[in-house]
Design brief:
mainly alpha, elongated, transmembrane, transmembrane helix, membrane, sodium:proton antiporter activity
């Protein structure tokens, strides 16, 4: 399936990244040895969510502004 524009592809990429990491963390929580490790995993997931959202926002902002070098 080909998505029509950059923003749609970026949205699909960040959703797959966040959901995939969330499922991985969920699986590790079930196998983890203790509560402290579970809290660390959830915090790492939240930090990655924030970083992913920030990165996607910056990429989309630059794409909408049109000053990228990939305009051909």
């Amino acid at each position: 399936m080909r998505l029509p524009d950059r923003l749609s592809r970026l949205h699909a990429l960040t959703k797959a990244d966040n959901v995939g990491l969330g499922l991985l963390v969920l699986g590790l929580l079930l196998e983890g040895p203790g509560l402290l490790n579970g809290i660390k995993l959830v915090l790492i997931w939240l930090f990655v969510l924030a970083a992913s959202a920030t990165g996607a926002h910056l990429i989309a902002k630059r794409a909408l502004r049109g000053d990228g070098e990939d305009d051909r």
